[in-house]
Design brief:
two-stranded antiparallel ribbon; 7 strands; alpha+beta; globular; 37% helix; 171 residues
């Protein structure tokens, strides 16, 4: 270890000892970065029609519960939600493009949550493109040292007078 490395490590250890809030803030920031990276990894896998890549972001087995936009009302397991994604990719085999905005992430120990808006265009078998903006709320748990989604809720606003969904919702 070089003298500089030793001094740096010593300084960081002392700073954490005397200013634990700094260490906690740095740790929370690092965890938020890890969750932001997970959200981006899922977005890229979605665009690539990478079913395994998408599902790698979710907790295995019955540790996952999802309220998705499409029927049925709920997906009570990883296997059920994988089937939903497989059907989506079959229905929209053409190009997919999506962006994520308004991301908010909160971390509390080994649990975290996020909410954001995902605006995307999906291309159906016949070549028609559909645009939709959805609201996503995720709950994460740190499992085996990595963040995974354990609860997801996907929704769009609905006009209660007409009963029609607002698929292009804007604030």
């Amino acid at each position: 270890m070089t003298r500089f490395s030793f001094v740096s490590v010593t300084f960081l250890a002392l700073a954490a000892l005397f200013f634990p809030a700094l260490a906690t803030a740095a740790s929370a920031s690092s965890e938020k970065d890890a969750i932001a990276a997970l959200i981006e990894r899922e977005r890229k896998a979605f665009e690539a029609h990478d079913l395994d890549g998408v599902m790698s972001c979710y907790a295995p087995g019955d540790q996952l519960f999802v309220f998705d936009l499409v029927p049925p009302r709920e997906y009570p397991s990883w296997d059920a939600y994988k089937k939903d994604w497989r059907e989506l990719f079959a229905q929209f085999p053409g190009p997919i493009h999506n962006t994520i905005s308004e991301v908010s992430i909160a971390v509390d120990g080994s649990t975290a949550y996020s909410h954001y808006v995902e605006d995307g265009t999906m291309t159906a078998k016949d070549g028609t493109a559909s645009e939709i903006a959805v609201r996503i709320t995720d709950v994460y748990r740190k499992i085996g040292g990595k963040w995974l989604i354990v609860l997801e809720h996907v929704s769009v606003p609905v006009d209660l007078t007409t009963g029609k969904p607002d698929l292009l919702s804007k604030p």
